[in-house]
Design goal:
With about 100 residues, this protein is mostly helical. It has a domain of about 55 residues: lambda repressor-like DNA-binding domains (434 Repressor (Amino-terminal Domain), Orthogonal Bundle). Helices cover about 55% and strands about 0% of the residues. It is built from 6 helices and no strands. Helix 2 packs across helix 3 and helix 2 packs across helix 4. The chain is globular and about 35 Å long.
Length: about 100
């Protein structure tokens, strides 16, 4: 089952290590609005957009018939995040510097 919007934004906030108080401060809304939304309560669209912006999330309307295609595309394009121990840009971006130079 897919997470609901309020579950997804709560998960994002937690993944960022941001408290409800900090999310409210960043978005210019009250902490109780963050709490209400995360519990599945109703908030205005403007409040939702402010909270999403504070958590660096895009909310994009997608026609229902395109949802499965979009989800499939996102899963296919997603690559694992570089590990914290990977300090080299060559490692991070998987650049192969051992390749033979081209003569072109």
């Amino acid at each position: 089952m897919k997470p609901s919007l309020h579950e997804a934004l709560r998960a994002r906030r937690l993944a960022l290590g941001v408290s409800q108080v900090e999310a409210a401060r960043r978005s210019g809304i009250q902490q109780r609005q963050v709490s209400t939304f995360e519990r599945g309560g109703d908030v205005t669209l403007s409040t939702l957009l402010k909270l999403a912006q504070a958590l660096d999330v895009e909310i994009i309307p997608v026609p229902r018939e395109d949802t499965a295609k979009l989800e499939s595309l996102l899963k296919a394009k997603r690559k694992p995040a570089p590990s914290a121990s990977s300090h080299s840009l060559l490692d991070r971006y998987q650049v192969n510097d051992d390749a033979e130079p081209s003569n072109g």
